């Protein structure tokens, strides 16, 4: 076997190694993004005028809340940023707002106009895109003596709730669990299968090269 043929076979093996590593990285990255992004249930909170409300944040990244942003939207109106990277920004209600433990949003002396949709988002640094899924909370302000409660509605993952009662997990969350488990195992098994196949192929080529040398 000529020196040129040996170099060519060696180049094939090296190229297979590089392509295998690249493919494994792509598979792992894809699996990370699929299993790492969650859609959180909407938490519905009910309070009477004058109450102190606590809106839970279910997607906390940093315990010091430096990545936490709270935005507010009422009846499809313009969105207002109340908290940015853990600091209260809403001037109109700044005196009644504060960021509590677990990055929850505390609203003291609830007013009727406080009702609406609140969303807890995570930004790892200024100017970055939102990290992970949004954690929406809907605040309803009651004018009667209706009992105060906390419930969850809509999609998939369930954020922790620190107050009152909560509805059972949605059926969509239960239905999606087998799919997530299947993808998770595929992400783990596929790289192993590819690695074994490449190892066998490489060993076969090595034996072929050795045979030709003899």
Automatic annotation (TrEMBL):
Gene3D superfamilies: Immunoglobulins. The keyword 4Fe-4S does not apply. Keywords: Membrane, Transmembrane, Transmembrane helix. InterPro entries: Ig-like_dom (IPR007110), Ig-like_dom_sf (IPR036179), Ig-like_fold (IPR013783), Ig_sub (IPR003599), Ig_V-set (IPR013106). The keyword Membrane applies. One of its GO terms (molecular function) is MHC class II protein binding. Residues 50-121 form the Ig-like domain. One of its GO terms (cellular component) is external side of plasma membrane. The chain crosses the membrane at residues 21-40, 177-200. SUPFAM superfamilies: Immunoglobulin. One of its GO terms (biological process) is T cell activation. Residues 148-174 are annotated as: Disordered. This is Ig-like domain-containing protein. It comes from Albula glossodonta (roundjaw bonefish). The lineage of its organism: Eukaryota, Metazoa, Chordata, Craniata, Vertebrata.
């Amino acid at each position: 076997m000529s020196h040129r043929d040996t170099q060519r076979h060696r180049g094939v093996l090296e190229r297979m190694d590089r392509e295998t590593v690249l493919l494994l990285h792509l598979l792992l990255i894809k699996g990370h993004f699929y299993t790492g992004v969650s859609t959180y249930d909407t938490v519905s909170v009910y309070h009477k005028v004058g109450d102190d409300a606590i809106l839970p944040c279910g997607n906390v990244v940093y315990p010091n809340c430096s990545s936490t942003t709270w935005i507010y939207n009422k009846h499809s109106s313009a969105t207002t940023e109340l908290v940015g990277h853990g600091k209260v920004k809403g001037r109109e209600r700044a005196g009644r707002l504060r960021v509590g433990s677990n990055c929850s949003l505390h609203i003291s002396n609830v007013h009727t106009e406080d009702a609406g949709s609140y969303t807890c988002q995570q930004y790892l640094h200024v100017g970055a895109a939102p990290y992970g899924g949004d954690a929406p909370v809907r605040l309803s302000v009651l004018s009667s003596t209706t009992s105060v409660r906390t419930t969850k509605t809509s999609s998939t993952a369930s954020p922790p709730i620190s107050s009152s009662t909560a509805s059972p997990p949605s059926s969509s969350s239960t239905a999606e669990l087998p799919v997530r488990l299947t993808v998770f195992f595929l992400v783990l098994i596929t790289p192993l299968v590819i690695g074994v196949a490449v190892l066998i192929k490489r060993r076969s080529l090595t034996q072929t090269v050795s045979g030709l040398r003899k």
